[in-house]
Amino acid sequence: MELIIYEMLYIIGLGLGDERDITLKGLDAVKKCEKVYIEAYTSLLSFGLSTDGLSTLEKLYGKPIILADREMVEEKVDNILLEARGSDVAFLVVGDPFGATTHTDLVVRAKTMMVDVKVVHNASVMNAIGICGLQLYRYGETVSIPFFTETWRPDSFYEKIERNRNLGLHTLCLLDIRVKEPTLESLCRGRKQYEPPRFMTINTAIDQLLEVEQKHGKSAYDEDTNCVGFARLGSEDQMIVAGTMRQLCTVILGNLTLPCHSRQDSSGGRRKC
Amino acid sequence: MELIIYEMLYIIGLGLGDERDITLKGLDAVKKCEKVYIEAYTSLLSFGLSTDGLSTLEKLYGKPIILADREMVEEKVDNILLEARGSDVAFLVVGDPFGATTHTDLVVRAKTMMVDVKVVHNASVMNAIGICGLQLYRYGETVSIPFFTETWRPDSFYEKIERNRNLGLHTLCLLDIRVKEPTLESLCRGRKQYEPPRFMTINTAIDQLLEVEQKHGKSAYDEDTNCVGFARLGSEDQMIVAGTMRQLCTVILGNLTLPCHSRQDSSGGRRKC
User: Fold this and answer.
1) Which of A59, A208, B22, B99 sees the fewest Cβ atoms within 10 Å?
2) How far apart are the C-alpha atoms of B135 and B170, rounded to whole Å?
């Protein structure tokens, strides 16, 4: 009879700032793991996922890190789980593993393959936004603002924001990031080619929000609605700015052209913080 | 002219589990601080705020920790801030500093007194509940379930749960804890005497929820409504149980009599996770 030693898959939140936002518990786990993957699909580290950024982490952890891009997470996750059946494996995630983007699929799949999972929590955008002073328990449903294209301008967020505001609740608006998206051309030809990474600025988000307001005309919000804009939340150089939609466009725009911003969220609420 | 050196107040989230859930950044800050306070008013550490629990922390930090109870946080916070004008001071908070209970007042007060503040984020109940599989962005407004007394049975949470459920959203129900509450007698006599600490069990919460449903009769939920119960979320011995309200009462009750539970939350949703 074959003896299978079931080891552990550690899913570890890295928090929001830099390499020192990992918890002691998370670092303990990484140090005992034979293989360490870092998830680079749903968000980018503000300290960069360039070779430089990774080597900072590798130096801290004392071992190499494998970049798990969208393709690997979606298509080859079973390989990672198979490895976790024979040795301890760490899967690092920016923020909390179950924050804005959950890794529930990974956990369910692990259970199916009888791989034990341990989660090390950390801060995520979903709770760190509390820093602006608006109470977390006064938020309604969270919405995502996707990049509009010429032919695809989905606006289901509008109704949700309207509803939240009618109830006196804030809305967390998560702004789109596009990382390692296959180009339309490559999809047609079946060859892998990727668009350059893009992060939605608060400026773009507000433009889109106002366009949708104009289309629906239900006065869910307007240029004078107070919002709070977040950029690089949790990093040393984070920016949190409160003002009307009109003001936010002017104030933040310039700074968001910095090369390393990773998260931009606009938390609209009735009250200014 | 008097020279005032403005030092820093660090507000540091400890996360949800034990002493090793602090981040490296948080520990760096604690180590450079001259004074270290720990906030013991809004929640208790699952690793205990007994002398034993504190000494575990003190050993890790290499310095003494001052317990900031409700009285100190509410009445003597200016003294802490004055100290932070002349030296680095750490204020430790279970979870994230701006999680379920925010420390916004402290930050505003610090700004007024021209004390610089740095926040070190960590996991809080508000994002760690994502571990049960229900998506965080599908939650509506959060509610609190307070301990009912003979004369005080507030039920404003009912309408909010009803609304969330009508919208197909989950509801995070935060269950009451009572720590260092002055007794009624002591309030009358002006002498400080405190009630023993109490934590609401999921059982009690469900009893109260069903009582309120019976009173209002609007079928917001019933005994067959699926819920997820959390106890000691983020700790080594955390419990997460899904089932109907009726089932949750039976399953979890026994375990919640353990001495060190610190957090119990019941996350009601339309779907079972």
Assistant:
1) A59
2) 9
